[in-house]
């Protein structure tokens, strides 16, 4: 944390200890809204509500919009009813829809019923879509133009309706029946001949999102094309809303946070670390630990099955950590590489055979390099025959681990599961068991056990 934020924390801690509301109010007016949002995230729920109530109306809304959805939910449940209704009414409709996902059903219903008719009408369309659909993240506050308007009429329309719009720099053009025809930039609207029709200056939209498209895929399309906004349409090409590049960035940030956590064998935290209760930290990790512990029983079972082989050649046990670790690392490398490639759109589930063939060759080359080194070192200490077992085993397990590690994310994507779930923890445990099977199989074959 930077020095300014550290100073804010120290001043706020002192004001809260004194229980001086005037001191708290003075502290929060001296700092940037981003720092105040960070401060709220680390405070306990009671102090968080106190600090938030002391913000001015405009500043309170600005700070609220900087918080994560889970933190917004916790904060809004700690406010008085009148404060809650005021904050909820002033939110953008798309932010309001995402907040409802985090609130208890009773609280959400009460807040929706308390909205003004106009705001309720703007929010209701998003609530009809699944939480992972892009329709849930669109904004219904936009300005649309008709193709038969003149540029003069269109500009007057933007002036009249644009104050509360999400964006006016990219304007959708529709027919009289709201079917999307194209888009026109504000620049073209201002610079063109005022008597020209909008349709003569509009252009085709490079990306049109369907309301039921997966939010992550839609957001990645927007970011890749670097669009300020993209229209969202229904199955009949009727305009429903817009998704801005800021919304797309937030969707991808949350997705990457969740994916990174699962790659490490944990669920993502729903609030900042220091603000998370101990039970929340335990809950985010325990399910994965239990799952991986059960999976690790496979390794124990394999070792038990080959116990007699270990008794005959005790040196076999010395190389078990090396081989299982190498297999797990090789599989994890392939899984992480392919998960990243999927996220970037470099590969698709239909490319699985091409990916597997590529990883077979990569695995064989890695296995040959490591196996050659293992052969030399093991032969020097335990003899040529033992060196052959280690060298050949490394070739086999690297090939198998790379192939399986590369295929798993593609299989997960094909069955609509999160590729991160199949990455590091699962691959490492899977490779432990299979590498032991290969190891003892090669030893039995070459050493006649």
Automatic annotation (TrEMBL):
Topological relation to the membrane, as annotated: Multi-pass membrane protein
CDD domains registered for this protein in UniProt: CBS_pair_Mg_transporter
Function text: Acts as a magnesium transporter.
Subcellular location: Cell membrane; Membrane
Database matches in Pfam families: CBS (PF00571), MgtE (PF01769), MgtE_N (PF03448)
SUPFAM superfamilies in the cross-refs: CBS-domain pair, MgtE membrane domain-like, MgtE N-terminal domain-like
Major site of localization recorded for this protein: membrane
Lineage, broadest ranks: Bacteria, Bacillati, Actinomycetota, Actinomycetes, Micrococcales
Quaternary structure and partners: Homodimer.
Family the UniProt entry places it in: Belongs to the SLC41A transporter family.
Keywords tagged on the record: CBS domain, Cell membrane, Magnesium, Membrane, Metal-binding, Transmembrane, Transmembrane helix, Transport
Organism annotation: Microbacterium amylolyticum
SMART domains with a match to the protein in the record: CBS, MgtE_N
Coiled-coil residues: none
Alphabetical list of InterPro entries matching this protein: CBS_dom (IPR000644), CBS_dom_sf (IPR046342), Mg_transptr_MgtE_intracell_dom (IPR006668), MgtE_N_sf (IPR038076), MgtE_transporter (IPR006669), SLC41_membr_dom (IPR006667), SLC41_membr_dom_sf (IPR036739)
Name used for this protein in its record: Magnesium transporter MgtE
Record-annotated membrane-spanning stretches: 286-306, 318-343, 364-384, 390-412, 424-447
Segments forming domain CBS: 138-200, 202-258
Gene3D superfamilies: CBS-domain, MgtE N-terminal domain-like, SLC41 divalent cation transporters, integral membrane domain
